[in-house]
Amino acid sequence: MAGVATAIGVLAVTATVAAGCALAGVAGIQSARVSAVADTAALAAADAALGFVGGVPCERAGQVVARSGLALTACEVDGVVATVAVASSAGVFAVQARARAGPPE
């Protein structure tokens, strides 16, 4: 009987650790995705601010983020430098990223 209880305890601990690792992995992958979308949105907004593409810079950033299914939480344009913030969730974790794009200083 003691061996069965020990085996069940070991399986429960192993399953809990595996679930925690899987959740952390999902959050890491989502973090990389959110970061990439923020970079792309900032570049799109900076291109619009520089006049390379038509449209309003923050609207361009919003379109990029919307196509990815994420949320644009902030967009600021200072001259031709665009700064955007993008957010998402990965399970119980909130994932956020900020990116800035513009000509070199």
General description of the model:
With 105 residues, the protein is an alpha+beta fold. It contains two helices and three strands; from the N terminus they run ααβββ. The chain has helices spanning 2-50, 57-67; strands at 71-78, 81-90, 93-101. A three-stranded antiparallel sheet has the order 1-2-3. A hairpin with a 2-residue loop joins β2 and β3. α1 runs antiparallel to α2 (57-67). The longest helix has 49 residues, at 2-50. The protein is rod-shaped, with a radius of gyration of 21 Å. It starts with a helix and ends with a strand. The model has no long low-confidence stretch (mean pLDDT 91).
Overall pLDDT, averaged?
A: 91
Radius of gyration: 21 Å
The poorly predicted ranges are none
How does the major sheet shape up?
3 strands, antiparallel
Distance between the termini: 72 Å
Strand content: 25-35%
The class by helix and strand makeup works out as alpha+beta
Global morphology: rod-shaped
The number of helical runs is: 2
Total strands: the figure is: 3
- Determine the fraction of residues in helical runs and give it as a percent range: 55-70%
The spatial strand order of the largest sheet comes to 1-2-3
Core attributes:
single chain; 105 residues; alpha+beta; 3-stranded antiparallel β-sheet; 3 strands
Brief account:
This protein is of the alpha+beta class.
SSE blueprint:
Layout: H1 2-50, H2 57-67, E1 71-78, E2 81-90, E3 93-101
Antiparallel strand pairs: 1-2, 2-3
Helix pairs in contact: 1-2
